[in-house]
Amino acid sequence: MDERLKRAAETGNIDALYSFIHHDANVFKRIDEMEFVDTPLHVAAVAGNTGFAMEMMNLKPSFARKLNQDGFSPLHLALLTGKPEMVIDFLSVDKDLIRVKGKGGFTVLHHVALDENYAHLLRRFLNFCPDCIFDLTVERQTALHIAAEKNKFEAFKAMLEWIQTAFEDDKCKRSKILNYQDKDGNTVLHLAASINHPQMIKLLIECEEVDKNKINDRGFTAMDVLQRQTVADNTESVNILNSNPLTFQKLSKLKLLRDEIKEMRDETVGVLLIVFALVLTMTYQGVLSPPGSVFQGDATASTSSNHREGKSVMKTSSFLIFYIPNGVAFLISWGITLLLLESVAKSIMSFLSRIYTIVCFCYGAALSTIAPSDSALLVVASTQIIISLSLWSIWSSNHRRFIKY
Question: Is the pLDDT of residue 401 over 90?
């Protein structure tokens, strides 16, 4: 490459770039004809000159896919030299660049899986091109294989959660990526077992698509791999692999919902808070002012009729039809409102959660007051308790697991 052109790329001088084009209009054509070469785009990527790089991509898009003598594209170089935001800029122009393979068949996604500092970028990269999760290295490994083999737990967990969300309605794709075998026949579970990583193993076997009995080229299952190790203590991993827990989807619904809420813009959270606050208000109002009102007291009424004062005038069947869904709507709105508040008011969450717990208690007290019969109250209360315990179980399971790991 001409030194003047190289200097323009290093300094980000776009005017010098066009001046050189005036001098030699075919310069890019000659560079493009070379199989492996450092183009001006490679130089700009290393230097971090985003403006120059974007101009270069506009003039010669093919440079973005060309590998240099070391087997790296401009996208690879930008990432490996610590400029992830520049990679995002490249992908904004051409999202398919994330599938360009360099040395060893590595895409930028494979490299990100190796660096814990970039774990937070995985979801953004994957959202540009979801199918890049299936890209293989020359060792026939996906990014998930690499994260498991190299013990990069944060990257591994981020990708696994993304897979469950992105392919929620496509069991075939989930099964394909989770059970894919590398050149040695190892699945991700084999690799997690090979490094005796209980957390990875736990997350994997909680995915209903993972085949624990898959055999690699040596005829070993993941359990065989684990038991053949000379590790001092692999009891925890063995117990986890032998267990049959709830599926990942059921166990982590609330965790995934919390992650989705965290990624929402403040304006969106504000709108949702208004919506669920209205639902809470309407359902709460339902116990303060029951349909058809309540029986009124009468000084001349008999003792038996006095027992009905303040009770709903609704028949037991009608009461159940109205208040079971009312209670479900109240509890779900109550829970989601707490999650929304947690994302925007975390510092005072302990205070707010206590207030909302009191509101929930008051709802139950009001409901018990207006229930027309003990049996009606029992049915409604049982339904709501079951729902509450289910929500609490899901939340506490995720809370313990993700805080621990």
Answer: no
Q: What angle do CA 43, 117, 48 make, to 5 degrees?
A: 20
CATH of region 1-100, choose from 3.30.1330.10, 3.40.630.30, 3.30.430.20, 1.25.40.20: 1.25.40.20
Q: Can you give the pLDDT at residue 254?
A: 58
Q: What is the pLDDT of residue 399?
A: 44
Sequence-distant (≥ 6) Cβ neighbours of residue 20 within 8 angstroms: 2, 4, 5, 8, 27
207, 247 in Cβ contact below 8 A? Answer: yes
Single-letter amino acid, residue 62: S
Enter the CATH code of domain 105-249.
Answer: 1.25.40.20
What is the pLDDT confidence band of residue 307, given thresholds at 50, 70 and 90? low
Q: What are phi and psi of 312, to 5 degrees?
A: -65, 140
Provide the token pair at 393: 């179980």
Buried b (16+ CB within 10 A) or exposed e, 227-243: eeeeeeebeebbebbee
| Cα distance between the two ends of the chain | 50
Interatomic CA distance for residues 286 and 174, integer angstroms: 43
Helix (H, G, I), strand (E, B) or coil at 372: coil
CA distance 39 to 31: 7
CA distance 191 to 214: 12
Distance CA 33, CA 25 (A): 15
| Mean pLDDT for all residues in the chain | 83
202-251 per-position pLDDT tens digit: 999 888 888 888 999 999 999 999 888 776 678 888 888 887 554 444 44
For residues 163 and 254, which has the higher predicted lDDT (pLDDT)? Answer: 163
Contact indicator for 247, 259 with CB cutoff of 8 Å = no
Mapping DSSP onto H, E and C, the string for 123-134 reads HHHHHHCHHHHH
Model pTM greater than 0.70? no
Q: pLDDT tens digits for 12-23?
A: 999 999 999 998
Q: Which residues pair with 312 in a beta bridge?
A: 294
